[in-house]
């Protein structure tokens, strides 16, 4: 039995590992479904690579680069803290807390569990005009997508008028990571799901603390 090929979509890697460790499930329904999902993941990656949208190459490349180290979200948090009054400061603190928790969970935990290489952009014919620097970290899940979702959800819950624009911005960042060829779509979906969960937990705690503090002040 061959070892999992680390440049495959995550679903195919899971199928390979199940087959290697448990030969009896090699042809099971779970393995077949995982392989089908892997083929769909690869096909979606190739579909994006084949898009004839050259005018988008530079802007999406710039978006992908600018999102390194959560720069757009930290910038927005700074603006909210400076200009948004008390609610803006609460939203900024909540968003930064969500970014920190997300980084701890994704970059310091999940990405270190097992090596998984990035997609091969040459093999899948991603135009070089889209290329950004290929990160050295593991591909699954997408840290950029997780950070974007964590910030968008947490801040959007504290400041509802910002919910739609922040989630739209997060979606653009996530798509840019597939468009530039550094992630399979499943990496993006998983990262966004994890980030959204982190953001929701963070905002829930922040709002409850705020409500508790307001209740104590009114009772005193």
Outline type: globular
Task: Please state the average pLDDT score.
Answer: 87
The count of DSSP E runs of length 2 or more, i.e. the number of strands, is 0
Q: What is the CATH topology classification name of the largest domain?
A: Vanadium-containing Chloroperoxidase, domain 2
Q: What portion of residues is helical?
A: 55-70%
Sheet-strand content, in percent, reads under 5%
Q: What is the radius of gyration computed over CA atoms, rounded to a whole number of angstroms? A: 20 Å
Helix-strand string: HHHHHHHH
Weakly predicted, low-confidence segments: 1-6
- By CATH, the architecture of the largest domain is named Orthogonal Bundle
Distance between the termini: 70 Å
Count of distinct structural domains? 2
Assign the CATH class of the largest domain: Mainly Alpha
Number of helices: 8
Output the structural class. mainly alpha
Can you describe this structure?
With 220 residues, this protein is an all-alpha fold. The protein has two domains: 1-50, no CATH class; 54-219, Orthogonal Bundle (Vanadium-containing Chloroperoxidase, domain 2). The chain is built from eight helices and no strands. It is globular and about 65 Å long. The model is unreliable at 1-6 (pLDDT under 50).
Element layout with pairings:
Blueprint lengths: L9 H12 L7 H21 L7 H10 L4 H13 L1 H22 L36 H16 L4 H17 L5 H35 L1
Please sum up the structure shown.
It is built from 8 helices and no strands. It is an all-alpha fold and 220 residues long.
List keywords for this structure.
single chain, about 220 residues, mainly alpha, Vanadium-containing Chloroperoxidase, domain 2, 2 domains, 8 helices
């Amino acid at each position: 039995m061959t070892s999992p090929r680390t440049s495959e979509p995550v679903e195919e890697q899971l199928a390979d590992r199940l087959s290697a460790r448990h030969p009896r499930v090699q042809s099971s329904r779970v393995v077949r479904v995982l392989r089908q999902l892997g083929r769909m993941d690869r096909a979606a990656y190739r579909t994006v690579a084949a898009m004839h949208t050259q005018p988008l190459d530079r802007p999406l490349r710039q978006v992908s680069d600018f999102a390194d180290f959560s720069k757009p979200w930290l910038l927005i948090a700074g603006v909210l803290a400076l200009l948004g009054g008390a609610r803006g400061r609460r939203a900024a603190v909540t968003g930064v807390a969500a970014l920190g928790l997300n980084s701890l969970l994704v970059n310091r935990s999940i990405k270190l569990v097992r090596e998984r290489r990035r997609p091969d952009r040459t093999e899948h014919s991603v135009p070089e005009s889209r290329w950004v620097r290929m990160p050295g970290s593991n591909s699954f899940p997408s840290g950029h997508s997780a950070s974007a979702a964590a910030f968008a959800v947490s801040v959007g819950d504290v400041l509802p008028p910002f919910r739609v624009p922040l989630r739209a911005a997060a979606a653009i960042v996530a798509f840019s990571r597939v468009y530039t060829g550094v992630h399979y779509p499943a990496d993006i979906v998983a990262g966004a799901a994890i980030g959204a969960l982190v953001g929701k937990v963070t905002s829930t705690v922040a709002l409850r603390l705020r409500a508790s503090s307001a209740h104590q002040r009114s009772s005193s």
